[in-house]
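Lesson 9: reading folded outputs for more than one chain in a single document. The general rule is that every protein is listed as its sequence immediately followed by its structure tokens, and records are never interleaved. Here is the first one.
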Amino acid sequence: MSAGGIAIALGTALVLLAGPLAFALAGWRRARRTRGAAAPHVAWNARLTLLSALLYTLAFNLIFFVQELFLVLPKALTPGLSATLFHNDHRWQGEHPLARLFQGTGVLATLIVALACMALLRSSRVRSTAWRLLLVWMAYCGAFMALPQLVVGALSGGSDVGMAMDYLRLNAATKTAIALLALAAMPPLALWLVRELLRLADAAASIDGVGARTRFVFRVATVPLLLSLLPIVAFRVPREWIEVIVVPLVVAAIGLVWMQAGAWRVGAVPARGHGQPLPLAWPAAAVLALLLLFQCVLRPGVTFG
């Protein structure tokens, strides 16, 4: 293995294994030190858990659609190329040197969406709990669907991003630097998003203290993301199982480990949930409509150009 490959492997182990484990252990020790009077019991808001699962399912598939669409459109607008968009992939016909560069436009699009959603979360324009939760998951999926591809692209010239890197004639050192920067961005991004997630609590007691914050993230992020994996599979079949299952699992895990392990570390977050009834009808309808679009329209393929 090359020096760059070793550096990326070590960085991956640090970011995805050692770092979250260290944070989780520190949180456990902090909880033991600060254990005092019994914290007030806060009931599990099952409706919020279900809403979060529906919105994550919607966000994951919307971001995946954006990624594939922006892999297709630049090729379709290039003379000599035509491209077909499927529910879980895309293909192109024809020859043009720019085709390899355009294999990186999907990642660029998802990162732009993530940044736009983060900007909206920072503003006070969106106040609804449901819509803010959707923005959290859109930002999450946009970032954590893209950043791992930068790492893979540095290691594999046959991957989408790897093709774009090779077109740009990036040397090994530059590829390694990009991969390490992508890995380094994952923890602070996940911790920023968990802060936005904690703001959705409708009572201060739900996030008051190390244990309360950890439980809140478990109920509103960890359990919903696990619940969402099965419906996400329905969007992606048929295809190879590594694409059907492994990709959604990786996207869910790489940020979630930091959100869950680091929830205790986020402090001084006001509970801004409005306590209004949480909607389930429109998120469920949106997921169903998107599933029908994927399986009835996109699965046969839509050709551009």
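And here is the second record, again sequence then tokens.
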Amino acid sequence: MFKTIKNIWHIEDLRKRIGFTLFVLFIYRIGSFVPVPGVDKSVLANTNNAGADLFGLLNTFSGGALMQFSIFALGITPYITASIIVQLLSMDVIPKLSEWAKQGEHGKKKSAQLTRYGTIVLGIIQAFAMSIGFNRMYGTVMIPNATFAKYVLIAIVLTAGTAFLMWLGEQITERGIGNGISMLIFAGIVANIPTYIRTTSQSSFIQDNQIFMNSLKTILLVLVIVLIVVGVIYVQQAIRKIPVQYAKRVVGNKMYGGQNTHIPLKINAAGVIPVIFAISLLQFPVIIASFWTPNAWAEWVKINLSHDQPLGMVLYVIMIIGFTFFYTFVQMNPQQMAENMKKNGGYIPGIRPGKATEKYMTRVMSRLTMSGAIFLAVISLTPIFLGSLAGLPKSVQIGGTALLIVIGVALDTMKQIEGQLIKRHYKGFINK
């Protein structure tokens, strides 16, 4: 492993990419502490603890910028929402978007541009609602002498912060290492780890003057974290190989094809994207409702749709499973895979090319995806159950979801680095 890390710095291109990524993440962390103009910082300081529990993972996504109401308070949530909307509309809802989805790289660029425009529109709406909501949420005046012009100014600043983060994420994807948006979420979660540790040590989970019990609880907590890490790595790396044979073809005086290969299907091909989508959508109505309390409907939404309540858990699991299937079949279309195999003279042994191959691939992918979706749901809910039993704060109970995202992004980034090393004849992290 140490030799692999040493090899990374021997490759100039890889060294520049890693350095660029770290530089962008450094800018992101600095911006998380730059306050929005016209906000009373003392009010924010007094309301941070209550808000951190309420906003949960959304505050974690932004690296704590949401509760500090910095220029990056919106984070990349509008971008995630816009991506969901564009991808849903591409599923034969709007013919033009469906056509773009079939145009390859050119179509992806058009969809990405539409996602950017959607991010700005959603950002303005969410920023305006957030500026009004934060000002009235705790019964205090966070924005002194608030006027419509002040709300508009704050909304513009917050939207500009989101647009800048979106641009930073694209720069990481193009010139750095890993998926840019995922790396920003990764950085925000890692930055909050010290806060998790401090909150846990100050909660009722750790009791004064009970050294033995405190040590036992700490060991159990660490053990649960290790089991989650091992489980996530095991499932994220697990694949099923579908054997494929290619018929021999004679072109002129040469013979082509005839080789045996396989299609690697991952148990969790969607990664952590379904969890990010699900928690973003689930907490959106909760945040909106919190701005309108003490209305009866707002209180009901805030209480019942919370991630630690029965209804909220059910919706959370349903959305995780739904988004896992949606994202997997968008990324890996069985019909397109079957057509490509048939065009290239490939077939799965014992399965007829064409429609039969498509049905077989759909059946196999459905079973694998269901296993992966259930795993994601279990990993996301386990810390919530254990946290409720142990009396941990809500901000710590979502640690399993955060850990799932961190491990998924780390594995994906590691694979990209390994690909760069193998391409240049270096051994990677996994290769012996």
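What the second record shows: Strands lie at 239-246, 249-251, 254-256, 260-266, 346-347.
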